[in-house]
Specification:
alpha/beta, 167 residues
Length: 167
């Protein structure tokens, strides 16, 4: 797994999970996905030790509903990812509701499919954004949770002022 890039401009966004996490390396100036993947958490953490790219992670929030061990294990991994970067204080946590509000203007009835479609629309529709194997678009090849990581990166790029923390 290689998540390296120009550390002055790029954002590494992670959609954490209990065993695997999706990630996107995003250049907000060029509005380009430079790299993406979904890897074992240990592999993601190891790659973070070697990289200086600004990090944003989807935070876990309680909405008063019962949660299982997967949620708690995801929380542990969020902490491990933050500890792995050279400057843990620079990590940004953005919560899913903030991504929904930013991209869709509301939290109500916004699910993964709606967020994916909103991203495709931002890149000019399906033909322009995804394209085809013979002529891939800038979002070609993104799968499942990688879309959520991209949504996180786009939200971070658009709402977090340069150099400040979002807490």
């Amino acid at each position: 797994m290689a998540i390296t890039g120009d550390i002055r401009m790029n954002i590494l966004a992670i959609d954490p999970g209990p065993t695997h996490s999706a990630w996107v390396l995003y250049d907000p100036v060029a509005r380009a996905v430079l790299n993406h993947g979904k890897d074992r958490n240990d592999d993601v953490r190891r790659a973070l030790y070697e990289d200086d790219t600004p990090l944003v992670i989807e935070g876990v929030a309680s909405y008063g509903r019962p949660v299982g061990m997967e949620t708690f294990n995801t929380c542990i991994w969020i902490g491990r990812f933050i500890e792995a970067i050279p400057d843990p204080g620079s990590a940004k946590l953005i919560y899913r509701r903030d991504v929904k509000r930013h991209l869709c203007g509301t939290e109500n009835k916004v699910n993964d499919a709606v967020i994916r479609q909103r991203l495709i629309d931002l890149w000019g529709g399906k033909a322009a954004a995804i394209g085809r194997k013979a002529s891939p678009g800038p979002l070609y090849g993104l799968h499942a949770d990688e879309w959520q990581a991209l949504a996180l990166a786009v939200t971070c790029a658009e709402i977090v002022p340069n150099g400040t923390r979002l807490d």
